Amino acid sequence: MKDSQIYKRVLRERRHKAIRAKVIGSAERPRLSVYRTLTQITAQLIDDASGKTLASIATAGLTGDAGERKGKVAESYLGGLKLAELAKAQKISVVVFDRGGFRYHGRVSAFAEGARDGGLEF
User: What is this structure's pTM?
Assistant: First the structure.
C-alpha cells in the first residue's frame, strides 16, 4: 500500500473512534453502523449494551426502484430500505446513526435516506 492510502485509513479510523466515543446504541435505540467498501455497503443494527447484532444487510446485488439514483448509490438506497424493513420486523423504529468515519455524502447519505424512507428515525 502507498503511504497516502495508509494515511487516509488512519484518519478515517481516528474519525470513527471519535464518533464511537459519543454514539452508543441500546436495546431501545440501537446503533446503525455503516461500513463502505469499493463495491458495497454493509450495515448493522447493534445493541452495544449486550454486544449483539440485531440485524445486518449488505447492498451487493440489490435491485429495485430507487428513483433517479443509479449504480452503487441506488444499491445503497435500497439497502437502507431493506434494513428499515428488517428493523420494523423486530419492532425497532428509532436508531442512532454511526457513519463509521466516512463523509456523509454519496452512498452513505443515500443509505441514510433509504433507512429514513423505510420508516427509521434518527
Answer: 0.91
